[in-house]
Amino acid sequence: MLKKSIVPLLIAGALSTSVTVGAEPAVDAINAKASLIVGSDEVSLVDVNLTLPVTHAIGAQVDIASGNHELGNVSAVSGHLFWRDPSSALLGVIASWHSFELIDNRRIALQGEKFLNDITLRAIAGYESSKAEEAGHSDTIEDAYGKFKATWYPQNNLALYTKLNQHHERTGGGIGAEWQAGYSANIGYSLFAELDHTEGEGNRGLVGIRFYFDGGKSLIQRHRSADPDSGNDFWNNNTSPMCDGSAASRAFYPGICG
Predict the structure, then answer these.
(1) What integer is the mean pLDDT of 221-243?
(2) CATH class of the domain whose range is 2-257
């Protein structure tokens, strides 16, 4: 399984990086981005991220999202604290809370990134707790989870990536792309799309547009010197722990598993 193999290895590899103060700051200036997303599961949402320098080598980020899902209204808040040398690597912690109206999901994890010329490797490994409550029934499931993402930049303004996810003993994977279509001295914008498949849950897709408020930079510069990936992930904070396909699960949670 992913959580027993590649994600811990990537975290260990990132941790082996010498944590020093690089010539470039962890976050070069206070910056923000906003993403408008539509996709499978009747998802439509806005995800806003604010990143700021704490010290030369330490940065912090807050992610806030709100929108709609087939389960109803959704919202999320995530926080990052990280060390980063934009020429080498990132190491940090991330905590998140997602609400699906009938489901609450909480996570805390280590995150690491390794920058290798035109390739970025990213891994997250941590703990999650999912609670569902409906019609007088309540369940809480706690487990480890992990994510791995490999991104290739064939051009400075184009990112192509593949990813693997392990959560609640279900494995998934996907592919995606982000293309920065243009930027000015104050703002940039990109178009992105993603397709993924999760064991027992099927296929999903999303598309969106993202606005960057951090000056004139290439996409790879934004990803490595401005804001890390958002911690708000509605495609891997879902209903699967409570929905096993049985008649009992559908009877207990008709709004979630029906």
Answers:
(1) 73
(2) mainly beta
